[in-house]
Amino acid sequence: MPAFWGLLVSVAILGVGLGLVSAAPENALVTQLPGFNGTFPSKHYAGYVTIDESHAKNLYYYFVVSEGNPTKDPLVLWLNGGPGCSSFDGFIYEHGPFNFEAGNGPGSLPRLHLNPYSWSKVSNIIYLDSPAGVGLSYSADKADYATGDLKTASDSHTFLLKWFEQYPEFLENPFYIAGESYAGVYVPTLAFEVAKGIQSGVKPNLNFKGYIVGNGVTDAVFDGDALVPFAHGMGLISDNLFEEVNSSCQGSYWSPVNDGCKNSLDKVDKELDSLNIYDILEPCYHAPEIKQVVSSDRRLPKSFKSLGQTQRPFPVRKRMFGRSWPLRAPVRDGRVPTWPELGQGEVPCTDDEVAYVWLNNELVRSAIHAKLENVVGVWDLCTDSIEYYHDAGSMIKYHKNLTLQGYRALVFSGDHDMCVPFTGSQAWTRSMGYKVIDEWRPWFFDEQVSGYTQRYDHGLTFLTIKGAGHTVPEYKPREALAFYSRWLAGGSI
């Protein structure tokens, strides 16, 4: 590191120790948020990083400084999936610094309360909208909205290099990349770009240590073949149907081998069609007028009544769609259907009104330094404005490359997610062929079994979270902060 650069970093680190981020771009500091009347527990910064000036291609980020020790705590980049979903999903509904309470009436701004289980308790965290065209990120050249795995990884790497130039005081912090769902592709492909940049001497030099993938899309065969055994194991399809589909498909469910296999899989789809695939224990609202599930007066144990319920203090309302790529959606010429395409029209399981109202409010956009609708357009949780190609293939080769280089990896799964079932993630991590150094066992939070884990050689850990769905921190925020903190600290989960 040149002497001047080292001096700059040292001065910047001193600034962070005094509660400041000294090198942040002008006007990036977020000083207030509509709906929140308290004091921020740490500094917040937000804005755009231009990754291609000729196209005016800009990626939007929201940066939450750690509430602990910003100079020492890890720096984590968070990515949501889709492809096409905004990382404000993670910020608003999962592990951001606030819990959002719906406003008093339709269209009214939500009220924000501090989240005691925010991941900013133990880490600095960047929420990035990627690729351009997703969330609040945009390009003046709409041709940029046709993209894929490799270009998205390259663009996100460019973002990181430029972001660290603006925030050099965080270069010494251990850096991790994390995400969920289709970020099971975003994370390892970006991690590979970062590792390659480090090897080739790209500056600034990132202190990259590892990555985290939650309920992540990984491999068409492993993910696709996971659904039927998961559904059978959960008691969602009968023994007879399982035996029929297993026989007709010869154990391969992802790509039907004959008409008999296709017909059997159609029967499975019919049996599962009315379920909420993101959490099979949660209701799926098939029409806007359905606001609640009629409770039963049957005498059930108290514990049964709370199965699958989120531990968040306010109702979680998030629009999701009724099918997803890892199941059996067609991938033609490598193009991955975006989330709205995967539903049958827009058939919501729930409703994302809180995020939609908040992020499309002009006062909010101004407060978080985001462009208004006339530039970016309407914010949607998951957009259909991009055309996306899955051109990186299976992620297993990426995981093997990264872990063999010594980068740590945590693969976690909510065990009631049917979108990317834990059975597939468990199978592909096992297929890596690494030596087991911590046998399958329960892990605990608050003296209760919170899931199961198995740790392998080369820094690979697989973890389940009991009773959680596709977006684990949304359903189990306390347990999520627990395993996240323990893993980042390098301890046993």
Would you kindly provide a written description of the structure presented here, covering whatever features stand out?
By secondary structure, the protein is α/β, with parallel strands linked by helices. It has a domain at 3-220 and 391-488: Alpha/Beta hydrolase fold, catalytic domain (Rossmann fold), CATH 3.40.50.1820. It has 15 helices and 15 strands. The strands form 3 sheets. Strands 1-2-6-3-8-9-12-15-14-13 form a 10-stranded mixed beta sheet, sandwiched between helices. A 3-stranded mixed beta sheet has the order 7-11-10. Helix 4 (183-199) packs parallel to helix 12 (396-404) and helix 5 (220-233) packs across helix 13. It is globular and about 65 Å long. The model is unreliable at 1-19, 287-308, 319-333 and 338-348 (pLDDT under 50). GO terms for molecular function: acyltransferase activity, transferring groups other than amino-acyl groups; serine-type carboxypeptidase activity.
Distance between the termini: 35 Å
Rounded average pLDDT = 86
Helix content: 25-40%
Radius of gyration: 22 Å
**Which structural class fits the helix and strand makeup?**
alpha/beta
Q: State the strand order across the main sheet.
A: 1-2-6-3-8-9-12-15-14-13
The CATH class of one domain is: Alpha Beta
Organism: Colocasia esculenta (Wild taro)
Family: Belongs to the peptidase S10 family.
EC number: 3.4.16.-
Keywords: Carboxypeptidase, Disulfide bond, Glycoprotein, Hydrolase, Protease, Signal
Short description:
The protein contains 15 helices and 15 strands. 31% of the residues lie in helices and 18% in strands. It has a domain of 316 residues: Rossmann fold (3-Layer(aba) Sandwich), CATH 3.40.50.
